[in-house]
Design a protein that fits this description.
Aconitase, domain 3, seven-stranded mixed β-sheet, 2 domains, five-stranded parallel β-sheet
Length: 430
């Protein structure tokens, strides 16, 4: 039987028959939680009578949502996670040495091609950029995976997404995925696997691929998968914490649906409140003023994202009415951005900069919105009250659009500032 990438990945981890809709008992390569989802997972682990995790080197807790601890409650949650991890001998990283889980774990070589990855967070699908079946689960399922090294999965149907043509220099991974979600809707891939392919993706830097995979769940997808290529394998091979074997789809694979995206027709876009599918060209939104701009998160807090933002902000100043918050997604990204001068550029422009944390993305802290305020964010969700008061608004866009908007105080197409020749070609580290 010819298999899609999702089917091939699951088949490599189960003895059960694999076809769309079937339920399989699946081996898990890596399982993790964060400081919010870790607490209920730890409680369920104890309730089921488990004594030890299946493999301490393949189980982790990454404190990132309310870390550095914002209050006593978050401090207690992280404390409990730390104590559990130490008792189990599993992976745990302190603040200042880690980062936002979906950027940090691939960076540390913990998510690899050909693997099945479970995370107690919906944006675990980010790992699909590395050709892994990476998917979010509830804390109870995660606890079971910690104990057993297994989980159950209903095999999803696969939608093939072909990104065809050549993108303009101003179009980023964020514009590609927002345009796709704008086309198919927030339920267009409900419990399906999105398999991304097409010649337009061949030159796409890894940092942009992570962005695309990250937001697959915003279309309702179970996973967002890139087929392994040399760029991906070089990235993974230079960081891998363990041996891995990439998995590929069959040429004769049958897809439930194929969606074609002409990237040459895509321009910088913005998702307006209150859904990621409410997408319009940035050039048509210039009358929308913003009070805050956030550059960071597991979606767009990587090195290339900061590189693009810095290219716009170099020699410019944040609008006097605007707050610009920049949060590098990991300690490694922060260090490299400092080395390359991006942090200096942000400071000179008037930005506030934090150590790696989710921060305002989920309305945690460090940039909460008041009633009537509007934030243009490089994060992944713009639901009602996502970043603060229910009467606030969030718009989603690329780092290029975000940086340009921070300067003007309104939604701004970056082409107002940069020519195509000035857009950086990609600053990711191998």
């Amino acid at each position: 039987m010819a298999r899609t990438l999702a089917e091939a990945l699951i088949a490599a981890h189960t003895a059960d028959p694999v076809e769309p809709g079937s339920i399989c008992r699946v081996r898990v390569d890596f399982a993790f939680a964060n400081d919010i989802t870790g607490a209920p997972a730890i409680a369920e682990f104890a309730r089921m009578g488990a004594e030890s995790v299946f493999d301490p080197a393949r189980c982790a807790i990454v404190p990132d949502h309310f870390t550095p601890n914002k209050d006593i409650a978050s401090a207690r949650q992280v404390q409990a996670a730390r104590e559990f991890a130490r008792k189990q001998g599993m992976l745990f990283w302190e603040v200042g040495r880690a980062g936002v889980e979906h950027a940090f774990l691939p960076e540390k070589g913990m998510i690899l091609p050909g693997e099945v990855i479970l995370g107690a967070d919906s944006h675990t699908c980010t790992g699909g950029a590395l050709g892994a079946f990476a998917t979010g689960v509830g804390s109870t399922d995660l606890a079971a995976a910690w104990a057993l090294g297994e989980t159950w999965l209903r095999v999803p149907p696969t939608i093939r997404v072909l990104f065809e043509g050549e993108a303009s220099p101003w179009v980023t991974g964020k514009d590609l995925i927002l345009s796709l979600i704008g086309k198919i809707g927030v339920e267009g891939a409900r419990y399906a696997a999105l398999e991304f392919s097409g010649e337009a993706l061949e030159a796409l830097p890894m940092d942009d691929r992570f962005t695309v995979a990250n937001m697959a769940v915003e279309a309702g997808a179970k996973a967002g998968l890139f087929v392994p290529d040399q760029r991906m394998l070089d990235y993974a091979g230079s960081r891998a914490a363990r041996p891995f074997e990439p998995v590929f789809p069959d040429r004769e694979a049958v897809y439930g649906e194929t969606v074609r995206m002409d990237v040459s027709a895509i321009e910088p876009v913005v998702a307006l409140p209150h859904l990621p599918s409410n997408v319009k060209p940035a050039a048509e939104c210039g009358d929308i003023k913003v009070d805050q701009v956030f550059i960071g998160s597991c979606t767009n807090g990587r090195l290339r994202d900061l590189e693009l933002a810095a290219a716009v902000l170099k020699g410019r100043t944040v609008h006097e009415r605007v707050r610009l918050v920049v949060i590098p997604a990991t300690a490694e990204v922060f260090a490299e951005a400092l080395k390359r001068g991006y942090i200096e550029t942000f400071l000179e422009a008037g930005a506030a900069i934090s150590t790696a944390t989710c921060g305002p993305c989920l309305g945690g802290y460090y940039g909460i919105l008041a009633p009537g305020e509007r934030c243009l964010s490089t994060s992944n969700r713009n639901f009602v009250g996502r970043m603060g008061h229910p009467a606030s608004e969030v718009l989603l866009a690329s780092p290029l659009v975000a940086a340009a908007s921070a300067v003007t105080g309104r939604v701004t197409d970056p082409r107002e500032f940069l020519s195509g020749y000035e857009v950086p070609g990609g600053g990711e580290k191998a």
